[in-house]
From TrEMBL:
This is Major facilitator superfamily (MFS) profile domain-containing protein. Coiled coil: none annotated. The chain crosses the membrane at residues 55-77, 89-106, 118-139, 151-170, 177-197, 244-265, 277-299, 311-335, 347-365, 385-404. PANTHER family: MAJOR FACILITATOR SUPERFAMILY DOMAIN-CONTAINING PROTEIN 10, OS11G0151500 PROTEIN. The keyword GTP-binding does not apply. It holds the Pfam family MFS_1. It comes from Escallonia rubra. GO terms for molecular function: transmembrane transporter activity. It is found in: Membrane. GO terms for cellular component: membrane. Gene3D superfamilies: MFS general substrate transporter like domains.
Length: 427
């Protein structure tokens, strides 16, 4: 049975090679900078100190700003991907990381670190979450519905494998070369996508090109409002999408809080450096690969996406393997089944927008809470108290997941009925 599944998975992955290869390179390039960024920002903003409240607050502020704008940007990108193609949107999103890391490659002074935070915030607004959402929509274009969950598990497995490779590179590369190598890999990705990736969507025909600029702007606002109403209608009309939105919100609320402060916490509490960060992140990635590529694809046909999702949430709550069981692939699979073929980008984008709300709320509490409990004025000795609070949010996510009732795929008649509800976003 496993052998047959492997052959089927290989056939399904074959048309996705030109998507997955540049994405893997992109993820490697981004991940290899993670372990060194804590040292770079702490050294620049708080020289000679192991704890840097300023870096924690700026990181939290960055995530809040990103969350605010992503609520609008991510659904827009999802709809644009439905209407004008996956390829141009992927090119845009994967290119945004080049400038921020180029700044740190030039200089690691306080001024350049501030410039990095500004440009990286803009990069996150455009690319954080949207790359995966658009990629999932691309997969939905070329993979039949019954095999999407398995393919999504392979994609998240490749995501984890890329993180492992990125952390291994970061472990053995000298710190002064990490940003240069990362930039070279990041530049390679859009070039490869331009040359080899095949478009799966026929772009919509633009009309009303001679409208005055003001009228065009007004029309875009009106269509954006109609699009948001349409996306909201899609989600509210589906119990599955409503439930998965709640799951995504509470999970992101907790996990975003942990992710934003974890490395700073480890540096302050245990004195971790770049090499130790790389080693622990590598071990987490290896555990994630085993679960995603070996265990979960075999278990999924037996128990279904809901059980896998709940298991992943339990694993996240106890944090035994950090991200050892990846929840994302099963969430995307459930969303993909609940949305029509013409609304894949909108549904993924809406749930991504819900995650953005959580990711902007989380730092507002987690950043000051972490800074407080790492300081000498903490009310009691529990440096990881903010992480405990974040885990409580994931417990709420688990309760929502337990109530989830995945729906069958929409039939052709249902798709035809909703296919022409809204006009294109840009015309």
């Amino acid at each position: 049975m496993v052998g047959r599944w492997d052959g089927s998975a290989a056939r399904e992955l074959k048309p996705l090679v030109h998507l997955l290869f540049p994405l893997s390179v992109h993820w490697i390039a981004e991940e290899m900078t993670v372990s060194v960024l804590v040292d770079v920002t702490t050294s620049a903003l708080c020289p000679g100190k192991s704890t840097c409240s300023q870096a924690i607050y700026i990181t939290g502020l960055q995530q809040t700003i990103v969350g605010i704008f992503k609520m609008v940007v991510l659904p827009v990108l999802g709809q644009l991907a439905d209407e004008y193609g996956r390829k141009p949107l992927l090119l845009l999103t994967v290119s945004t990381s080049i400038v921020p890391f180029a700044l740190l490659a030039i200089n690691e002074s306080k001024e350049f670190v501030y410039a990095y935070y500004v440009t990286r915030t803009l990069s996150f607004i455009i690319s954080q979450g949207s790359i995966f959402c658009i990629s999932v929509a691309y997969v939905a274009d070329v993979v039949e519905n019954s095999k999407r969950a398995a393919v999504f598990s392979w994609i998240t497995g490749l995501f984890s494998a890329s993180h492992v490779l990125g952390n291994i590179l970061a472990r053995f590369l000298p710190e002064e070369y990490i940003f240069e190598v990362s930039i070279a890999l990041l530049v390679f990705c859009p070039v490869y996508i331009t040359l080899f990736l095949t478009e799966t969507v026929t772009p919509t025909t633009r009309q009303d090109q001679r409208l005055p600029i003001f009228n065009k702007a007004l029309k875009v606002v009106q269509e954006r409002y109609n699009s948001m109403r349409h996306a909201l209608t899609i989600v509210l009309s589906s119990p599955t999408l409503k439930s998965i939105s709640l799951v995504s919100f509470f999970y992101e609320l907790g996990m975003s809080g942990i992710s934003n402060v974890l490395l700073y916490y480890l540096k302050s509490a245990f004195g971790f450096n770049k090499n130790q960060f790389s080693e622990i992140l590598t071990m987490v990635g290896i555990g994630s690969i085993v679960s995603q590529l070996i265990v979960l694809p075999v278990v999924n046909p037996l128990v279904g996406e809901k059980v896998i999702l709940c298991t992943a949430l339990v694993a996240s709550i106890i944090y035994a393997l950090l991200y050892g069981l990846a929840w994302a692939s099963w969430t995307y699979a459930i969303i993909s089944k609940a949305a029509s073929s013409t609304d894949q980008g909108k549904a993924q984008g809406f749930v991504g927008g819900v995650q953005s709300i959580a990711s902007l709320l989380s730092p507002l509490a987690m950043s000051p809470l972490t800074s407080w409990f790492l300081s000498s004025t903490a009310p009691f000795n529990c440096k990881g108290f903010s992480i405990v609070c974040a885990s409580i949010c994931m417990v709420a996510s688990l309760f929502c997941a337990l109530m989830l009732k995945p729906e069958a795929t929409l039939n052709a008649d249902s798709q035809e009925n909703i296919e022409s509800i809204e006009a294109p976003l840009l015309s």
